[in-house]
Specification:
Blueprint (H helix, E strand, L loop, with lengths): L1 H16 L7 E9 L4 E5 L2 E4 L4 E6 L8 E2 L22 E5 L4 E6 L9 E6 L13 H12 L1
Length: 146
């Protein structure tokens, strides 16, 4: 009888012990390190779960943005395309619904290596990435040249 009582208590408490899978909010700092001539995202790589939200926050008065490469996000999802951050404290958020890898960068500072990745759930395999058409690649190219 004692065994059945303990077993019943475990069954009742088991759902309470299950981990709550509430979406999490993450922050990526957008950093200008003028002393070392660096601009970067911190963290550079962020591992999150589907449903989580990421906010990019500009720490300095410098123009930055967050844009995925034309082939830098999973098929069936949308790429990232933030407005420009112009002031310290400017921010932009995105909630990630689909699993996979989102490779992004800052257009004005791409040549300085300002890039990062968000991995949602599990990383994308090569065949999982979006394949852009000619018009998308041309529009991206034109943005880089602006």
């Amino acid at each position: 009888m004692k065994f059945l009582t303990i077993f019943a208590a475990i069954l009742v408490l088991l759902p309470c012990a299950a981990k709550s899978e509430e979406p999490t909010h993450h922050v990526v700092e957008v950093v200008t390190d003028a002393d070392n001539l660096r601009m970067y995202f911190d963290p550079k790589v962020l591992l999150i779960e589907p449903g989580d939200t990421v906010t990019w926050k500009n720490l300095f008065k410098e123009d930055h943005n967050v844009v995925t490469y034309p082939d830098g996000f999973p098929k069936g999802s949308e790429g990232l395309n933030s407005p420009f951050f112009k002031e310290s404290g400017d921010s932009w958020s995105h909630t990630f619904k689909e699993e996979g890898t989102f490779d992004y960068h800052c257009i004005p500072h791409i040549l300085l290596g300002m890039h990062g990745s968000i991995v949602v759930g599990k990383p994308s395999k090569a065949a999982d990435y979006h394949i852009p058409n000619r018009d998308v690649v041309a529009a991206y190219r034109n943005r880089l040249v602006e």
